[in-house]
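Recap quiz, item 2
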Amino acid sequence: MRHPSSRALTPEQLESFQNELDDLRQQVVDDLGQRDLEHIRGVINAVRYSELAGRVLLHVSFTPLGVVAGVACLSLSKILENMEVGHNVMHGQYDWTQDPALNSKRYEWDIVCAGDAWRHYHNYEHHTFTNILGKDRDFGYTITRLTAEQPWRPVYLLQPVYNVVQALTFEWGVALFGLELERAVSGKMSRQELVGRLKPFLRKAGRQLGKDYVLFPALAGVGAPKVLAGNLAANVIRNVWAYAIISCGHFTADTRVYTEEETRNESRGQWYLRQLHGSGNIEGGRRFYLLSGHLSHQIEHHLFPDIPAHRYPEIAPKVRAICDKYGQHYNTGPFLRQFGSVLKRIVKYALPIKDAKADALQSAPPSVQKTEAMVARRAQRDRKLALA
Amino acid sequence: MTWTLRLPPAAFAGGSLSDLTPAWLKRVVNAELTEFYVSHLSPLWSMRQVKARVVDIVDESAGCKSFILQPNGLWRGFRPGQFVTVTVEIEGVRQQRCYSLSSDWREPERLRITVKEKKDGRVSSWLLRNLRKQDVLLLSQAQGEFTAPQSLSEPLLLIAAGSGITPLRAMLYQLEEHPRNTVLIYYARSREELIFAEEIRKAAAQCAHLTVHICYTAAGHNQAEEGGRFHPDQLSRWVPDYRDRRTLVCGPEGLMQRVRRHWREEGGEARISFEDFTGAFQDVFDPGLIAPSQSATCQVDFQRSACVIEADGRQSLLDLAEAAGLHPPFGCRMGICHSCKARKRAGVVRNLVTGKASSAGSEEIQLCICIPITDVSLDV
């Protein structure tokens, strides 16, 4: 469970590392209040009014500048809605407010992926089994090879190309990914389950397509092609931005992967370590953080996925100080460097490469002994999973 | 600068727009979105929620105020004795409490709730300290069955103590239009804590069929002359025919218990109604009251599954549900993914991650990291 640039911890050190992070979480939870509610309501205001401005501009203006401004407003609205509002509200970050409009289970976002499917595979699968090969389907999204431990196949030669396609159509990738169609193809999914997954997808996708490509263009009359093109552009801009931010979260050079074997009997402290070593941050300014939905602070998000994201920049220095104290690597860097290292990784592992560093990672001994209680707990969790 | 369009609220919130909207349009239009824009044009407007503006605040007695509320067009009216659920945001958290309406039913545009300062009453204290004229509250429609019977020939006995007078005050307004034989016995600690003193005196003077007895219960008052606490002797003295009357009681737990006991002994329980918010809506819980040894015998009621099981105070609610053969949604089992969230109707649970006890009322909890420490009812 060791990161190559991090120190191995004794069980006592690991426990106090865990306690310090638990305490930090508790400090924020105890402090939640009016300020957090005002933040998210402010962002929702910005989402609604920039959408209104964008749609009005697209409808009424026939000059290139007006159309570009409309597309910019609409893209901004969609980016803020998906990243800072949708993603974070659906994580349960604002459930404590008891406001039904901010309830994690009720919220439905402006993207073709239906909320319920996403809640399951993202909140549960990805955040519980982060970077465990074979269990965290977010790692490479099934179609991209990012580590030497994934067996190479000729189709991976094309991954630099289809990652470009994926960036342009990201929301469709997210939605199709949630369907787990590969299980249907290999015959591992019953017909009933397939229908159960397809129905909400088709309903949501139909709604999104109808809104952006039928209803609003139709309302524009002769301006229909212009509005349709503007909506398409806004969706694509949002897609590329989301792809870039999200792929920096776990695919940068310094993030490592795990096997099921080595994570079988994890304690909470070990879970924290895996979240830390499996994630990477992006440095930037306040506006950049907001536009990224604070996924710029992927490490803090993975340690504490359900505390309001705008708190991450405030607690990041404290998290980093704890990591320094325990000699743990804290993966961060400016956007271009982090995204560059993702692109490099995508190109590198397209080839049938054998990686000495990855081999070393794989053979690194687990730093903490497993207790019987941990073994039993994890076995129980696996049983439940199998039942599902 | 803030501005508000002066259109009648009913234009957006009456039967008009929301009822006239065709079903297909409702399917296409995002309800959250419409609600957002409508409420940003004016805080009182809504397509689906009763909202009310505070138009006046009246000091009733020490630590007690009435708030006069003007509801939007979605308000469907009330019957005297009913209550509304008021929603307020306190430090970013929505809180709900019930308040009886003390208003005159002939003035549907002027609702009145009367709020008395209570020890540990978070919402009441907040309302008294922070609510200002022009503020907007979220209301439910009128609820509750604590109302006088329709038949005017049936005589009434009303018993109230403290702020328990509020629903009964609304019933007294009814008498002005529809006179019926009524006796009101009203207990207050002292003259200063009497609520609606002047109005009740006026009502008694106007309505020939209304008799009022006011009793002071604090030490220092002449108990023989001024009544003191509820006692069966008072009934036989003031209302000899009380057994033939429909009786409505509202007040603190102590009064209700004494009255209930007396009626039970007399076998007249069918003819008496109580209004009681303390059980369902208390928000104060002292974890010190629960000794660890007591937690061994909690019962967990999975209401939707019609299944009650015993908890030993060690297993999480999710484990208990699964052990009972139920299939609630589950997830990470460490409190991060929020998949197993469910509504707790009543009871107190301890959060294993924070170590803290929950409130006793209705709220959403994460089944995988909560253990019951009192009897708990869940919507599972």
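Confidence is low (pLDDT under 50) at residues 1-17, 279-295 of chain B.
Chain B touches chain A at residues 28, 32-33, 36-37, 40, 89, 91-95, 322, 330-339, 341, 353-354, 363-364 (CB under 8 Å).
End of item.
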